[in-house]
Amino acid sequence: MQDAQQEDGGLSSTVPFAKHVPPVDPAWPTAYPQIAMLLYHHYGDIRILQQHYDSIKAYVRGNVASGRCKLHTNGYR
Fold first, then answer.
1. Exposure pattern of 37-50 as b/e (b: 16+ CB <10 Å)?
2. Listed residue (2, 57, 72, 22) closest to 13, CA to CA
3. What's the whole-model pTM score?
4. Of 40, 46, 57, 64, which sits most exposed with the smallest number of CB within 10 A?
């Protein structure tokens, strides 16, 4: 996933990229930090988090924090 990341931190809804129509399904990109944490918890090896920290941080800042990754509520709150 790190190799397919865009400059602004964005990730495609599939990696490797496949043609899709926006908005991107957030399920795939959000798997990136989850998988890193699961690997850390399973193996106890901090290197996986060290290796992917900057990419995950860019994803969160570029997509989640900016509001590009929003839940569509269809008018319900």
1. eeebeeeeeeebee
2. 22
3. 0.64
4. 46
How many residues would you count in the chain?
Answer: 77
How is the chain split into domains, by residue range? 2-64
- Helices marked H in 1-77 — which ranges? 27-43, 47-59
Q: 9's torsion region: left (phi>0), alpha (psi -120 to 50) or beta?
A: left
**Which amino acid does the sequence have at 12?**
S
- Hey, what are 28's tokens? 């795939």
Distances (CA, A) of 1 to 16, 55, 66, 67: 8, 9, 20, 21
Is the Cβ–Cβ distance between 17 and 4 less than 8 Å? Answer: yes
Residue 53 in 3-state DSSP? helix
Q: What is the pLDDT of residues 17-53, one digit of tens each?
A: 666 555 566 677 788 899 999 999 999 999 999 999 9
